[in-house]
Write a structure and sequence with these properties.
FAD/NAD(P)-binding domain; Enolase-like, domain 1; seven-stranded mixed sheet; five-stranded antiparallel sheet; 33% helix
Length: 451
Amino acid sequence: MESYDYDLIVIGAGSGGVRAGRIAASHGAKVAVIEKDRPGGTCVIRGCVPKKLLVYGSSFAHELTDAKGFGWQISGVQHDWSSLISAKDIEIDRLEGIYRNLLKNSGVNLISGAAKLAGPHEILVNDKTISAKRILIAVGGMPTILDIPGMAENAITSNEALDLNELPETIVIHGGGYIALEFAGIFAALGSKTHLIYRSNFPLRGFDENVREHIAECLVDRGVILHPQTSITKVEAESGKQTIWLNTQETIIADQILSATGRKPNTHSLGLDEVGIKTGPVGQIIVSEDAQTSVPSIYAIGDVTDRVNLTPVAIGEGHAFADSFYGDNPRVMSYDMIASAVFSQPPIACVGISELDAIQQGKKIKIYESRFRAMKNTISGRQEKSYMKLVVDAETDKVLGAHMVGPDCAEIMQGIAIAMKMGATKSDFDATVGIHPTAAEEFVTMRSPSR
């Protein structure tokens, strides 16, 4: 039998890699995890967690505005950006420590350094070659910057946006995806003049069309300046300011420009080609149902495979991998009815398919919708409305998609995702007694289809 240093080496100590490593170790495997940055990965260190903390911090601005309608007399309120960033950093440091302890307490050897594949079973790290029976790649993704003159030299990405020394007076955000919308909400709420530039008619391409239209209206009401069907042609920097040239012949002078036009698999330095691992057009690693690459001893999970790029999915894939190969419990990750949220202001949440998806699949459907002003807004004076939508199979009555824009939608959607995962029908929704008075009850009181 061939001898290896480890049963499993995981490249990447993000959420998926850590889960795979520690579960494999709990099943008795000898495991090493290699990380060139900080344990925790994109989500914990420079993604969803710090960004959500900034969302929380910025959302108090709206709470203060709404409080006046409820009799609160508030004056002289100021926000200290540096205090928010400092508090965020302290929490991220704490979480990093938790991730380190999770690995340590599981008996996993955490190796600090950049890994490069040296063969089907070998990895070069810190000028040393180590080996394993299996290798798992879980290095996640990285921000992309479009090839626009001056963009790469002058733009920041979501990584740097979380650590700015000063709150910009004016910021241009390039992109219409969920990262762009979340940062637009953060900066606009904290007082930055915020421009959102994107090429489509509405933000969030790929989401339900009614959701996209509704969030565009909400963003304007929240102070974000939208530039739909617009592209950036050039960026120039002078005297600490950025001049952004648009294809509309307009220019915008800003303190910062944030490139939020998507992410790509972080595979460029792994040496995939040298060992024969097949990749896709954006560098994603091609894998089988059980996460195996074209090299039988090497596997991949998470955003690096560009399947469903969500942290809980990477965690689920990592756990399934560990159970399958080290826990005598072969299983694969289910991608059916995965709920997701956009922490824009207001937030968005959905599970299942959109109306357009259903039509393109040839399904006969019924659409149920509700637009209403939340009870809180009736007194606060905020005109913003919440939006809810159900996509229902007209033949089976099964709920195919649920979509919401409005406060607490992510918390609401988690429970609906459970019901839909179990195959809930519209009749099941109708038979459920709502909790009153809440926004959530609207999902069980929509009786008449809109179309």
